Amino acid sequence: MPVLDKPMDTKVSAARRVEQALVDAISAGELEPGTRMDEVGLAEQYGVSRTPVREALNRLAAQGILVSGEKRGLFVAEYSKEELAQIFEAMHEIEIACARIASQRLNLFARSEIESAQTACVEAAEAGDRVAYLRANEAFHQAIYKATGNPYMASLASEFRRRTGPFRAKRFSNGDDLIASAKNHESLIEDIFSENSATATTGMRNHMAESFLQVLKVS
Amino acid sequence: MPVLDKPMDTKVSAARRVEQALVDAISAGELEPGTRMDEVGLAEQYGVSRTPVREALNRLAAQGILVSGEKRGLFVAEYSKEELAQIFEAMHEIEIACARIASQRLNLFARSEIESAQTACVEAAEAGDRVAYLRANEAFHQAIYKATGNPYMASLASEFRRRTGPFRAKRFSNGDDLIASAKNHESLIEDIFSENSATATTGMRNHMAESFLQVLKVS
DNA sequence: TCCTGTTTTATTGCATACAATTCTTGCCCA
DNA sequence: TGGGCAAGAATTGTATGCAATAAAACAGGA
């Protein structure tokens, strides 16, 4: 019975710990899309009562990470290809908006953050380290979100990345994919740094379209 | 003690009814930003126990409609002018994306829905009926969201409208404001119907900028 | 064998009780 | 008079029990 990792985290409520644990499990793919969330099972698994579990499930449901199917209960959201395309389209639009805003507001600090994230991406890609690349890629995109200077845009974009995480993760099957993705970043960076918002828009559009096509292949 | 409107709605859980009631109250401005949500108070107000109230509050908090301040408890979100500007910027971007996508995919049915919503807006504006206008305006924007054919974009945009509802509602102080807003819609519609996505983008950009400037005036 | 109606079981939703935490009030002392 | 401290009150977080309901299992007839 894997009790929660940090039982000493007395500051955080049990409900939040369960929520975080579930998000992690879903993002990591341990809980596959379509899996049913059993209140009593999770409760005893995490050593708490049903109440905080219900609270966590509710919050996840409100975020769209869990959905209620035709059967009773909540399930890890699973999407058809069409739904996936729609979600990616939405994410796509938000990323484009972020890139455009970032290109208009770019300051030196944000710029250096993006660049160093990209450096980490390239290193991980060349080393063929898939896990490191995923993390670096995440930091890269987060840096762009942050560069918008708009935390609401940033959290919106982050939320979509969380939701699509399980589907995007699959696509890096070999080292070439990593390197291709990193190369892709380079041109996107150039476009953003050009401080021409139209160029940045186009750049992100290409990047995201590319990215989505690969997801569809493996889903 | 205003008991819930539809006590017979046995199909819907108490938690959902409370949630909906709270959303309505907040959107309508009955619960002003900064108001503290009292679990026990709401519980007896709606004639249920704390459990479903807590569930509703949690869901609202997950949507960002409620936030936890420095004091204990949850509060109706209130924003500084800068935060408001950022939220509107984000909403702005999403609306623009919706308008662009809608203009690319517009079919006759969606088109007629947008047009009839606009007709209702004009009628309400000319009658000087503020409440009717708010509802019609809402339907107008929802019709555009729906016209994207992408439910995720639509729900995203809807969520932002819910969040900004209390702030937008204030801005229609007199009849001229209504008429101005309705006129504003006309040009936006033309832009969307032009099926030129660049034009639709520009149109929505103007509409939203106009809208936001008025919000800032009264906030 | 398959459909349909019924009983059984499992699970959710709600209420309530209790524990733990934080806010507040009032008191004492400087 | 003001600041700190302590006791009390209020409020949140969690556990548990019960009732309602949906799913499943089962039986009986066509």
Provide a descriptive summary of the structure in words.
- 2 copies of one chain form a homodimer.
- The first copy, chain A, has 219 residues and is mainly alpha-helical.
- The first copy, chain A, is 72% helix and 4% strand.
- A 3-stranded antiparallel beta sheet of chain A has the order 1-3-2.
- In chain A, strand 2 and strand 3 form a beta hairpin.
- Chain A starts with 13 loop residues before the first helix and ends with a helix.
- Residues 1-10 of chain A have low confidence and may be disordered.
- The interface between A and B is medium-sized, with 23 and 23 residues.
- Chain A binds a DNA duplex (30 and 30 nucleotides) through residues 13-15, 38-40, 48-52, 54-55, 71-73.
Task: Based on the model shown, name its key terms.
elongated, mainly alpha, 3 strands, homodimer, DNA-binding, disordered N terminus, 219 residues
Number of discrete helical segments of chain A:
9
The secondary-structure class of chain A comes to mainly alpha
Spans where pLDDT lies below 50 across 5 or more residues of chain A: 1-10
What is the averaged pLDDT score of chain A? 77
Q: Give helix % range of chain A.
A: over 70%
Quaternary assembly: homodimer
Query: Ends of chain A: how far apart?
Result: 32 Å
Largest interface: A-B, 23 and 23 residues
> What is the number of E strands of chain A?
3
Query: What amount of the residues of chain A lies in strands?
Result: under 5%
Spatial strand order of the main sheet of chain A: 1-3-2
C-alpha Rg of chain A, in Å? 19 Å
**Structural shape of chain A:** elongated
Helix-strand pattern of chain A? HEHHEEHHHHHH
Q: Major sheet of chain A, described briefly?
A: 3 strands, antiparallel
